[in-house]
Design a protein that fits this description.
single chain, alpha+beta, 11 strands
Length: 347
């Protein structure tokens, strides 16, 4: 009988099996690490990744976000209008009395007109669009806001609701006064109550701006009163307004030609409010071009910022457009140039 060393063979086989097992384990771990790295890069789940932009860049961020269902990265600007250079027709649009302007077609993501849209300028009360976004995102319309001394505004000529410490109103009332009449003290009321403090609310505003890609923006107050470090651009305002119109309440408010309500002082006494909108299109002082309907928007005026206006409009087919003008030389120039800009919708 031929003898064999079965024990030795079994040992060698075990070693081979063990080596194969180790290799399979190493390969599996390598695959898992590669998948984890890919997820980090694509931003899937809760894993963050570094963005390739800096707030000091001349052009606002066109960053990337994740499509969770496909686990692929898509450009942030895929659903947005994008322009880097001027897109102007001086013969068709007279924008000689404004520093910057743009017309954005939301359905087609086209920039129909652009002048200095990435230039940092004072936004005046167009700031309040971001104030409204942060309030709508973090507050409840029915919650009661209580004024403190933080609502005191000493700026000469500033539009005020006349709030005093101890006055109360709901967030819904405050947003309507903020956007229809552009009250600067109400902006501070919202900021303190929604943010816990005005300072924290400003952090929320700037953080939201970054998330929207508005990296050429910095807010130092919630109302737009002059400050050297308070600035934005036409393009960044488009990003903010495009976000704001996702809220039904915002769309409803900006379409109002006036607002009347009652709020209360610290003793429970009624205080009446009844004002027209600051938007002269909605008040009937100026008319939109034929086949263009102005839904509403936000005005802004200070000596430093000039006359500013941002609008949501629709053509005869219901297609939406956002138009922005900054630093116009007077109300007449502002509204006349806006009429020229809106006239580009049908060209």
């Amino acid at each position: 009988m031929r003898c064999t060393n079965n024990k030795r063979k079994n040992t060698e086989n075990d070693k081979k099996k063990g080596l194969c097992k180790m290799m399979r384990t190493f390969y599996a771990k390598s695959v898992l690490l590669a998948v984890a790295a890919a997820l980090c890069l694509s931003g899937c789940g809760e894993l963050p990744y570094d963005m390739a932009y800096h707030p000091d860049y001349d052009v606002s961020s066109f960053n990337v976000v994740t499509k969770q269902e496909t686990r692929t990265a898509a450009p942030f600007a895929a659903g947005l209008c994008v322009a880097v250079d001027n897109i102007m027709d001086d013969e068709a649009v007279d924008m000689s009395q404004a520093e910057a302007a743009a017309l954005f077609a939301l359905n087609t993501n086209e920039v129909l007109y652009a002048k200095n849209i990435h230039e940092r300028l004072y936004p005046a009360s167009l700031t309040k669009v971001m104030t409204a976004i942060v309030a709508l995102e973090n507050g409840e319309l029915g919650q009661t806001l209580t004024a403190t001394n933080a609502v005191n505004v000493t700026e000469s000529g500033a539009v005020l609701c006349g709030l005093k410490s101890g006055d109360t109103m709901t967030l819904d009332q405050a947003l309507r006064i903020l956007l229809v009449y552009s009250s600067n003290d109400v902006a501070l009321l919202i900021a303190e109550n929604i943010g816990g403090s005005v300072e924290h609310f400003l952090e929320m505003m700037n953080e939201k701006a970054r998330k929207l890609g508005a990296t050429n923006t910095n807010f130092t107050n919630p109302n737009g009163l002059p400050d050297l470090n308070h600035y934005t651009t036409v393009y960044d305002l488009y990003l903010m307004f495009n976000e704001a119109i996702k809220y039904d309440t915002f769309n409803e408010i900006i379409h109002m030609s006036s607002y009347q309500t009652t709020f209360y002082d610290a003793s429970g006494n009624a205080k009446e409010f009844n004002k027209q909108t600051t938007n002269l299109f909605l008040r009937g002082n100026y008319q939109a071009p034929a086949n263009v309907t102005i839904i509403g928007g936000k005005t802004g005026t200070t000596n430093a910022a000039g006359n500013c206006l941002m609008l949501l409009s629709r053509d005869e087919n219901g297609a939406p457009y956002i138009s922005v003008i900054l630093r116009a030389q007077g109300a007449e120039a502002l509204y006349g140039q806006m009429q020229d800009l809106l006239d580009e919708i049908h060209k």
